[in-house]
Every structure is written in structure tokens, then in C-alpha cells.
Amino acid sequence: MVNELNSGYRFYIYTSNSDLNGEPIAVAQVNEWLPFNEHTKVWYATNKNRSENLISQVAAIRPDWIYMIGMFSWHFTLVPLFYGRAPHKLLSVRGMLHPGALEQKSLKKKWFLQAMKTVGLTKKTIFHATDLVEQEHIASAFGPKAQVRVAANFPRLLTQQPAAAKEPGSLRLVSVGIVSPMKNYLLVLQALENVDATIEYNIYGPVKDAAYWETCLEQIKKLPANIVVHFHREIPTHKIPAKLEGQHVFILPSVSENYGHAIIEALSAGLPVITSQNLPWQGLEENKAGMNIEPSADTIADAITQFAAMNNETYSIYSQAAANYAREQVNLTELTAIYSSLFETTINDAAV
Q: Which of 13, 70, 258, 302 qualifies as a cystine partner to 42, CB 3.0-4.6 A?
């Protein structure tokens, strides 16, 4: 968004200086504003005084909007909602109100949502939904009177890569994403137990649920010799294109995704995708860009087997189709206009 919305905008991004594992992000400085581009600055906040610094910086900057990305965070959701002084507040729920997402750590999330309603925060907040389905999820959580604006996410399209050479009977799979039950890594690993082809599977992502990953490791031990799995933990965003190079298929059959940034990136690079029917990226099979499946070990195994059986000519068709599909789905000019309208509408509505 900060790369597309530039004329007339200034962005101040306040975020954590650590990843999901608590490991520090490699940045030059923390707890001060660093330039990102001509109209954007970023503050990498340490744990100490994180909320206090946020409140003081908001007071100093006096923004027109506070735009919060994600739910269920004390520092980055409740604190700015309660204490951030700004005329307008937008809260992007990022798929976190999807029924499948709410089932994970459900008691904490129910308490969080109830607290927001009890103290009246929802009456002072405008919610950002990325599609009409998410708009319904917001209404289900906060009632039909919740103020909602709909605008799709800004994607990052990667440079299309040459299709990797492909022989029948072998396949290189790759996943990039947080390791949690929502992503269905365990289901993929269970499916691989029933695949006869030679498979190399590379997983990149921070472990959000350690107990879940331990279960995945136990499943990896059960895999036959024709299946090799490599786990690499999290990688910086700028290194993702290099990690996708030489891979055949991106696989991420998530329970739900608000958008699936990693999926559109893989498609744009020319990797067909195996994913679930619950994601925004539909019609993959019809467009020869991948497969939308109902997540189960059997359906995943069948999809992997189909791709493994492809020869170089057939796979190259799918690779080109994946890149075409990604670019057909995204109109950055139109999306930029929608976001400009979203912010302007917020001002006008609040003034009424």
C-alpha cells in the first residue's frame, strides 16, 4: 500500500522489532523513525515501553487515521483503539474473524471480542474487509451495525521465473508461511506418506505453534525414503524469489486465508499452486494454474501425484498459466483508486 499510495500521503508504520519466535529483526536502529521510502517511515519497537512509545508518537504525529492491521493484539490493536488520538480509526481484521481462525485459541478470542463490544470500541471503529465474505464475518462478530469498508489487499507480484525442468515421477514442493494448524502442514505431511513419486518438500516459515510442529516432526519420521522434507524457518521477504526458483509447485492448503500473499507471489513467479477451496484464489484448475481442493490427506495426495506425473511440456503450460492467472487477478491502478476512495469516504462519513 505504501508503494502505491504516494501522492498526498504520509505513512508512519509502528511495528515490532522481533518475529513470531521473538527473534530480533535485523534493523539498523530500534525505537526511532527510520526512512522506508520518500513518504514512509518505520518504527521498530522493542518490548520495553512499546505501548507508551506508541501513544506518545501518535500524539506527536497527530495522524488523520490510525490503521491497525490484525486483531487480538494488546499492543497493536487494543492500545491504539483505546488510547490512540486520531479522528478516524480503521481496523483490518486480516482473516482473523473467519470461523476456522476463531476456532484456534477460541476462549482468548471470544474474551477479546466481547471486551471490544462491552467498552464500545466497535462503535468508534471502522472495519476493513478485503472481500464481501469477510464483511459477513465482521457483521457476525460485531453485529449488522458495524461500519465496514471493503477493499482487496495490495499484492506483491514477483518477476516470472523460467519454468523448472520437470521429469515424470518427481516433484519439488515448497511452502512459505507461519507454521500453525491453520496452514495444514500436518495434512500435507500425512498426504506425502501415500505418494509413490520422488518428492522434495521445502518449508519456510516461523513456528507459531511449537506443539503442532512437534507433531509434524513425528510425521516426517514416518515418511518413506522417496520423500525428503527440509525445514528452513523464516526467511526475509526479499529472499523469497530466490527460494522459489527451481521449485515446481507451491502448496498451502490452509483452513482459511484472508488473502494469501504467499500464494499470489508464487503464482506470479510461475509456480502452480495446490491450495484449499476456502481461499480467494479460485478457478485454479480451470485456468491450469494449480488446484483448489477440499483439504484432506487423500485429496492432497491426489493433487501432488497429478503434478508429479507431468512431463516437462505439460508442466511448462501450467507454469506459464500460473503467471498469467496472477496478473489477470490484479489491477493495481484500480486498487489504488479503491483505497483512495476508502480513506476519503471514511473522512466524509465521520463528518456527517
A: 13
107 φ/ψ angles, rounded to the nearest 5 degrees: -65, -45
Task: Give the per-residue pLDDT at 258.
Answer: 66
Residues 311 and 344 in one domain: no
Q: What is the C-alpha separation between 175 and 253, in angstroms, rounded? A: 10
Measure CA of the first residue to CA of the last residue in the chain; give whole Å.
27
Same domain, 187 and 208: yes
For residue 130, being part of any structural domain is answered with yes
Give 226: exposed, middle or buried? Use CB within 10 Å, 0-12, 13-18, 19+: middle
Cα dihedral 333, 335, 341, 347, rounded to 10, equals -130
Task: Identify whether 92 is part of a domain.
Answer: yes
Residues 295 and 193 in one domain: yes
Q: Is the pLDDT of residue 81 over 50?
A: yes
Q: Which residue carries 471490544 as its cell?
A: 116
**SS3 sequence, 57-72?**
HHHHHCCCEEEEECCC
Per-residue model confidence (pLDDT) at position 4: 81
What is the pTM assigned to this prediction? 0.72
Q: Considering just the CA atoms, what is the radius of gyration of the chain in Å?
A: 21
Helix, strand, or coil here: 172?
strand
Q: Which residues contact 339 (CB under 8 A, 6 or more apart)?
A: 1, 4, 5, 151, 154
Q: By three-state DSSP, how is residue 22 classified?
A: coil
